[in-house]
Amino acid sequence: MLRWAGRGAWPPDGERELGAIMEVIILGCGTSTGVPVVGCPCAICRSSDPKNKRMRTSAAVRLDNGKTILIDTSPDLRRQALDNDLTRVDAVFYTHTHADHTHGIDEIRVYNFIQRMSIDVYGVEEHIAHIRRQFAYIFQDTVKQGGGKPQINCKVVRLGEAFELFGARITPIELCHGKLLSVGWRIGDFAYLTDLNAIPEASMELLRGVDTVVLGALRWRPHDTHFTIDEAVEAAKRLGARRTWLTHMSHDVDWADAASKLPETIQLAWDSLRFSL
Ligand SMILES: [Zn+2]
Ligand SMILES: [Zn+2]
Ligand SMILES: [Zn+2]
Description:
By secondary structure, the chain is of the alpha/beta class. The strands form two sheets. The chain has an eight-stranded mixed sheet. The chain has a seven-stranded mixed sheet with strand order 7-6-5-4-3-2-15. The protein is about 20% helix and about 25% strand. Helix 7 (about 230-240) links the parallel strand 12 (about 210-215) and strand 13. It has one domain (about 20-275): Ribonuclease Z/Hydroxyacylglutathione hydrolase-like (Metallo-beta-lactamase, Chain A, 4-Layer Sandwich), CATH 3.60.15. The two termini are about 25 Å apart. It contains eight helices and 15 strands. It binds zinc ion (3 copies). The site of one zinc ion (ZN) has 7 residues, from helix 2.
């Protein structure tokens, strides 16, 4: 892994394959329960609008050199992969370790089978340590391997330190998720910032110049650990991206209603949304 020290041309040696983003796929844009919520009789959970159906929050980033970065392994990963023809994963980036972002980790096995290789998994030290504890079976020697366990290599990254992966410049960025740390991922001029209720000033600096942002926003009413939609809009305006897509919405949010209230450049995502920069 090459660490990028700062100013100057990117990529540093000028001779690498391009790692520009070709496409971002929103695999899921729902909060931890998903929408509809099991057993909930509310109007949004019973809505027939496909944009009110939200799997757990995750995204895939496809680079123009054919590499695919998966952000988080949601419990819905299998369904998301099938729905979006996600047949290749070259790396996984973790935002944090809440169950709605990690519990699909076992689905990485299919990419081990397809690609006949282990997959690199990136996170900050505390998140990687948590994954090693939470999913200890993956890291323990067991008698029978079978088709049994994901084959992953954990790669520890440091907040604010840019590095190169697949020719793209990647920066892990500190976000506040209540009292917890959530990691935003800047990939070139794209930023993926979910599960947050504040962006530290130093992180705003690291996000300067982004073209497109995916930004977490739970609902209209206040919440201790997530931006409301209004707070997310405020943050999006400060970030100043050309385009912001909101994600991680609960069943309090009707897509069409919110769309009518939001500025044109800041809109709610929906599952299977694809965009380029
Ligand atoms: Zn979440
Ligand atoms: Zn509901
Ligand atoms: Zn969370």
